[in-house]
Design a protein that fits this description.
heterodimer, A: alpha+beta, five-stranded mixed beta sheet, 21% strand, B: Aldehyde Oxidoreductase, domain 3, five-stranded antiparallel beta sheet, 3 helices
Chain lengths: 96, 138
């Protein structure tokens, strides 16, 4: 019973995490050709998301840096992604 | 209110200064960043600033909080523009007020250096022969 319930939740999470929307800014937006993209691959961590983005948009690799923000805070590669997170690609900043 | 953080189309030195002035602060320092008319000898026609505003405001709040907690700043204003700007236009103003001048100078230096490092704002330079996102590539 417990196992089945757990599996069900995991499946639901996987489905929800799949439909992730990602915000892009600056040169990352130009490279992707859109201010928001949808990622359908099941990526559970920031590192996996970055790898997915690099495969999809190889020119992101040429940037000086490419950070990911989760819920408006810079996230490390091992940070977990949850359904409903606000995720953004942050290319090298240049304000001021 | 001892901190004023804002991102908007137009900013002035005076509004930042007016915000931080108070009788308990004998030293007020202001940093003003303007659009330079050239980069590496190439004339700059205009700049465009794009902001991830909700996150940029949070990062600016962190900078302001640090100057107050670690440097003894009484009041601080950090204002940044978004949108299109021409050479000579003011794009960032930092005003810091403290009982004595050393903290005010230190806070301005810290705030602009950290802003350029961490705050999600991007600048595109328009030249006669094209445009480029500043500092994007190594």
């Amino acid at each position: 019973m417990q196992v089945g319930w757990d599996a069900g939740i995991k499946q639901r999470l996987a489905i929800e995490v799949k439909g992730m929307k990602i915000l892009l800014f600056g040169i990352a937006k130009d490279i992707a050709g859109a201010p928001v993209i949808q990622v359908d691959a099941p990526v559970a961590k920031v590192a996996a998301l970055k790898e997915h983005l690099y495969q999809q948009y190889p020119r992101l690799r040429e940037l000086k840096s490419c950070m990911i923000a989760v819920n408006k805070v810079y996230a490390t590669d091992d940070a977990a992604l949850q359904p409903g997170d606000e995720i953004a690609v942050i290319p090298p900043v240049s304000g001021g | 209110m001892d901190v004023w953080i804002d991102i908007k189309e137009n900013i002035t030195v005076q509004e930042a200064l007016d915000f931080v002035q108070s009788p308990d602060s004998g030293g007020v320092a202001v940093f003003v960043g303007n659009v330079r008319n050239e980069t590496k000898g190439k004339p700059v026609r205009q700049l465009f600033f794009e902001c991830y505003a909700p996150m940029a405001l949070l990062e600016l709040e962190k900078i302001a909080a640090h100057t107050r907690a670690a440097m003894g700043i009484k009041k601080i204003a950090i204002l940044h523009v978004s949108g299109n700007k021409l050479p000579g236009d003011t794009v960032v103003v930092i005003a810091a007020a403290a009982p004595h001048r050393a903290a005010a100078f230190e806070a301005c230096q810290y705030a602009i250096d950290t802003l350029k490092d961490t705050v999600p704002i991007w600048k595109k330079e328009y030249f006669e022969d094209g445009e480029v996102w500043v500092a994007a590539h190594p």
